[in-house]
């Protein structure tokens, strides 16, 4: 693109300024996107990473796990249509714990699971808990930032029961609190909803086909089957938090489109005479349009490369406590969207170029 490069070389300051604005916009979008994904994981990674497709809750629980209460009878009814390996109970209880010396309080969420089921977490350090012990737990490793380590004892503030950390896992949080996994023997000592003769939990995780889901919905009373996405929306604050950040990102994309549209439209108006001369000597509208498209793509790609480098550089100096997650997929998605938005912003200039009349433009220049 000889003409495009010559023009950009001739008017370097103009293109540097628009490139600088684009770098700032893309940098802000990438940072907010990484923050949104990080907050999403910090709020709900235990559900996002759960090896289950559906969850069964008590009816009228508003898709909130902590509002649902199910019993062994509900589990037996569900297992008429879903095998034992496809369904497993899950207890969820938010609480506050203290270290063995009671020097510090920490908010956590207890998850009670069948340790041999599909919900068992991957152990990154230490060992997995067993069915037989009631005082051992596996914790998310973010608690290590609070000074906890293998072998430490933690005490549930509500019940006063003490547990020993025998293992750590990673990527398991719920409502911005680290998850602590235990078996149902330990769950019976802290759960507020336990009855003397029956085990009570909050939900049943399912890994089954849609046909079996329909059978459960039709034949099991007083329960509702929801997807993991619906469960995420039921986590307090999740929908509002993500909705606000996504709206900010959407507005930034719209702003970027307007900035590019105005810049290139003004540039096009200023070059009407030159475009008229080029058309008079045989240049086609498609050639002039390709020049503008090349300039838009070139500026966007260079701005993207600079912004991605800046964002990755900043991510390395952010504190571990800040929930920031900028994956390759997220970078690729934002980059493709910005290229698309840039092309949309250039459409007005392309339309104006196609309508240029060579004789009129030359006459205006004379």
Number of strands: 13
Please provide the ordered H/E string of secondary-structure elements.
HHEEHEEEEEEEEHEEHEHHHHHH
Cα Rg:
29 Å
**What is the topology, as strand order, of the major beta sheet?**
3-4-10-6-8-7
Structural class: alpha+beta
Task: Please tell me about this protein's structure.
- The chain is 51% helix and 18% strand.
- Helix 9 (285-317) runs antiparallel to helix 10.
- The protein has 366 residues and is of the alpha+beta class.
- The mean pLDDT is 84.
- The strands form 2 sheets. The chain has a 6-stranded mixed beta barrel with strand order 3-4-10-6-8-7.
- A hairpin with a 2-residue loop joins strand 9 (173-174) and strand 10 (177-182).
- The chain has helices at 2-10, 12-48, 72-78, 184-190, 210-219, 228-234, 238-270, 272-280, 285-317, 328-354, 358-365, and strands at residues 54-58, 70-71, 87-99, 105-112, 125-126, 136-140, 153-156, 162-169, 173-174, 177-182, 200-201, 203-206, 223-227.
- The longest helix has 37 residues, at 12-48.
């Amino acid at each position: 693109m000889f003409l495009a490069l010559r023009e950009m070389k001739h008017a370097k300051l103009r293109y540097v300024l628009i490139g600088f604005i684009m770098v700032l916009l893309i940098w802000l979008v990438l940072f907010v996107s990484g923050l949104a994904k990080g907050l999403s994981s910090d709020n709900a990674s235990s559900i996002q990473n759960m090896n289950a497709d559906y969850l069964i809750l008590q009816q009228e629980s508003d898709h909130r796990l902590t509002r649902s209460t199910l019993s062994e009878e509900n589990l037996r009814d569900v297992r008429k249509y879903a095998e034992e390996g496809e369904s497993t109970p899950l207890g969820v209880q938010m609480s506050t714990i203290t270290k063995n010396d009671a020097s510090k309080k920490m908010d956590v969420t207890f998850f009670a699971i069948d340790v041999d089921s599909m919900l068992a977490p991957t152990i990154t350090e230490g060992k997995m808990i067993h069915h037989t012990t009631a005082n051992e737990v596996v914790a998310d490793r973010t608690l290590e930032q609070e000074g906890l380590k293998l072998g430490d004892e933690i005490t549930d503030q509500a019940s006063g029961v003490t547990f020993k950390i025998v293992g750590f896992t990673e990527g398991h949080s719920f409502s911005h609190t680290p998850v602590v996994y235990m078996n149902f023997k330990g769950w019976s000592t802290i759960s507020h909803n336990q009855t003397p003769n029956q085990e009570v939990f909050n939900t049943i995780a399912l890994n089954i086909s849609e046909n079996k889901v329909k059978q459960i919905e039709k034949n099991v009373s007083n329960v509702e089957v929801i997807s993991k996405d619906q469960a995420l929306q039921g986590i307090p604050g999740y929908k509002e938090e993500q909705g606000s950040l996504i709206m900010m990102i959407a507005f930034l994309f719209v702003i970027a489109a307007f900035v590019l549209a105005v810049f290139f439209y003004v540039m096009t108006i200023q070059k009407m005479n030159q475009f008229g001369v080029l058309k008079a000597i045989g240049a086609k509208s498609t050639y002039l349009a390709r020049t503008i498209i090349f300039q838009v793509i070139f500026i966007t790609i260079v701005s993207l490369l600079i912004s991605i480098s800046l964002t990755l550089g900043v991510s390395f100096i952010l504190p571990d406590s800040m929930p920031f997650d900028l994956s390759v997929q997220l970078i690729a998605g934002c980059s493709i969207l910005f290229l698309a938005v840039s092309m949309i912003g250039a459409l007005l200039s392309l339309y104006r170029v196609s309508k240029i009349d060579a004789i009129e433009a030359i006459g205006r220049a004379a």
